């Protein structure tokens, strides 16, 4: 500012007198011009100084709006932005305010030093920003504390989002210090407050409770905290169960309809916990997917299924096919596919009878990548089945690109055939097209004699379901088969 003023004033002094002398023809005119020149200089320099000062203040304000270490909003901007967002919404909107605080930050900074601490804080900000695709506003509100307002699609997404956020933050922290953790306080828009200040107060109270236990997540609503604690305990128990190989496998028989002979088995995971009792697969399998346990769970299922079948000498004699589900999360993970590939390479005898089931949705996500993975694994002799066929946006064109051997018609079609003529026609059509493409068809979820009779009339090749046989241990199945 001083330099610009000095430059302008110098030029004015040097040249303004020359201009006045050249333009003025007499003494009176010269005095008037000198007076005008002085007033004009004051006006111009005043405007210039005002504009320069205003620009400088705006630059300073903008600089104070952004945290220099993390690039996040300053607390004041965050609060204003949150209030603006909340004022335009009603209490049906699913907003949640989360405060993340690093446990033992002072001792951590002493270990890491100034520069690495700044890197850690920047990494934490990145972890919070990329934790989900939900819309969010984030700020560093204290030396080691971050606040984030998230707009969720629905309240049911909340627990999943908080779990993922907690896991991501801890993962980034443990790059710098293996034992480092963070605590989280959560407040909900509506029940816990309808303004930025009230939500921050509620989330801070929840955080204070969480920090008493370290590494915890606490909701301002005690009932939600209890639910979150139960969920975390269940996740921890599942991790232990997988590590200790406490997950068991059962086998559901698949029959050839033309002859009635048992030809295949589907392997299903089962978990019984001493505290929680029987935990349904519909609960623990999604948990394994969310928490990144899928690879270990599938490896355990393959290991136990192979051992049971080998010990009972059933492979190749009675059982020609063993079906194992691969989740969409695994199928889209390079490390998971590499691990399955390594397993098949080490177990060629089991691989010859193995049928890997992938969901139709997983196959359609990226058909070219799916086709590549299928071709890689089929080198070991495994076959592939499209599970839950018909529930996604089915494209028959995928059979030109993906070398699948089998489709499993989703149970919803089988259970509706008796009462819905359109479903019956669709089921018959799927079976007919598959046979023309030389793809095997398995109907799953057969529960009545009428359903079985209809499938036989459609010339369906294989079927499974409670009407034909419940999932059971191999010893129970051997008794039933009189082997």
Automatic annotation (TrEMBL):
The secretion signal range is none
- Where the record annotates domain GGDEF, the positions are 93-222
Using the record for this protein, list the coiled-coil segments as residue ranges, or answer none: none
Name of this protein:
Diguanylate cyclase
Q: Which PANTHER family match?
A: CYCLIC DI-GMP PHOSPHODIESTERASE PDEF, SIGNALING PROTEIN YKOW
Source organism's superkingdom?
Answer: Bacteria
**Record SUPFAM superfamilies:** EAL domain-like (SSF141868), Nucleotide cyclase (SSF55073)
Family annotation (InterPro entries)? Cyclic-di-GMP_PDE-like, EAL_dom, EAL_sf, GGDEF_dom, Nucleotide_cyclase, Rev_trsase/Diguanyl_cyclase
PROSITE patterns, from UniProt? EAL, GGDEF
Ranges for domain EAL: 231-483
Q: Record's NCBIfam families?
A: GGDEF
